[in-house]
Amino acid sequence: MRKNSTKNNRINGEVRRALSEIIRDVKDPRVDPFCSIVEVIVAPDLKTCKVYVSVLGDEVMAKENLEGLRSAEGFIRRELAHTLNLRNTPELKFINDDSIRYGVEMTKKIEEIIQTDENRSKQE
Questions:
Q1: pTM of structure
Q2: Parts of the chain with a pLDDT under 70
């Protein structure tokens, strides 16, 4: 199975959907209820899975959320095996994704630049 095959894309989507539901059931208080799964990349051999997670909050909350998810990895993997009928249940690796926060910061900077340009044009 190639990396960008239709089958692999479908598996990525199914794993992402299942993990989004499973994470809501995690009882660890470190796992934020507003934790969202941004992207899932399952290896073509179904052995490993990178799960990119985003949390609403600061870096301390994101770090605690990752620790909670890593400690609940066994539960999450077992529930994933029950939910999906895959040949192998992939080993999960949770990775913090700052792309949403980065996008918001860049949007603010762009708006500031546009505002300063408009102020300059009004002064001239």
A1: 0.78
A2: 1-3, 124
